[in-house]
Amino acid sequence: MSFETLKYEVEDRILTLTLSRPERMNAFNPTMRMELIEAFDRADADDEVGAIIVTGAGKAFCAGADLEKGGDTFNRAKREDKTLGTGLRDGGGTVSLRIFECKKPVIAAFNGAAVGVGVTMTLPMDIRLASTNAKFGFVFARRGITMEACSSWFLPRLVGMQQAAEWVYTGRVFGAEEALRGGLIRSIHEPDELLPAARALAREMIDNCSAVATALNRQMMWRMLGADHPMEAHKIDSRAIAYMGQSPDVKEGVEAFLQKRQARFTMSPSKDMPDFYPWWEEREFS
Fold first, then answer.
1. Half-sphere exposure of residue 41: CA atoms within 13 angstroms, side-chain side
2. I want to staple 122 with a disulfide (CB 3.0 to 4.6 A). Which of 5, 108, 264, 265 is the partner?
3. Domains of the chain as residue ranges with CATH
4. Residues 6 or more apart from 276 whose CB is under 8 A from it?
């Protein structure tokens, strides 16, 4: 199926998800919100997708929320996204939470400006690369509104409280070099080298690693950011090691290493996740 605000393209097990409203600088609207969630649902269910790259069409990555409604843009009593109902849920947060739950590694490739929700929705992605043309802004206070898309949880964990505070309290727009120094992005690339660099990184993950081990590792690291003691990590590490330790993928991985050849992993996240997954929904550990 096709999307109205996105391009969904799978090639060699890499899904390139392109925000595609270039006439509006890929501004985030209710349709994009719903389509992003659907796209990640689709990607998680498809074993032909080993990694996901998110980028933007045209000059921008995402200019933030579409402000065409003017002063009522953020007025929940007048919002158009009826799927959120009349409650207090933030639309950007539903996208961030869906990305957070993803089983596949997610790479953001900032081809241009990423402001407001255009940057906050990438915080639960795993690795962020940027073009020399990229700019960033946590501009909320300058618009008279607060952080959203779960960014008050993600941003300080990614860049530290002091850096997060400066960017959020000033609301200023800054370039890729500052984003790199502050730990928001991993690397800077010339515009025509950005997607090849993102694809090379995705390729390394897909070609060399067990998809199930990667899915478990992704959630283990994200979930432990909120743990209050390393014992919580020990609990899930122990269960994951026990499960994967007797799996066909670990047998293949060790034999491939000993035989000095490329591993051929066969387990898939759609069928072979352990019965304790998702463990964070349990009330007690046993």
1. 8
2. 108
3. 6-205 (3.90.226.10), 210-281 (1.10.12.10)
4. 239, 243, 282
* pLDDT tens for the chain, residues 1 to 286: 689 999 999 999 999 999 999 999 999 999 999 999 999 999 999 999 999 999 999 999 999 886 666 544 555 655 566 566 556 778 899 999 999 999 999 999 999 999 999 999 999 999 999 999 999 999 999 999 999 999 999 999 999 999 999 999 999 999 999 999 999 999 999 999 999 999 999 999 999 999 999 999 999 999 999 899 999 999 999 999 999 999 999 999 999 999 999 999 999 999 999 999 999 886 544 4
**Token pair of 183, please?**
């730990």
Q: What number of helices (H) and strands (E) belong to the chain? A: 10, 9
Instruction: Annotate 172-241 with DSSP letters as a single string.
Output: -EEEHHHHHHTTS-SEEE-GGGHHHHHHHHHHHHHHHS-HHHHHHHHHHHHHHTT-SSHHHHHHHHHHHH
8 CB-near residues (< 8 Å, 6+ apart): 2, 15, 17, 39, 42
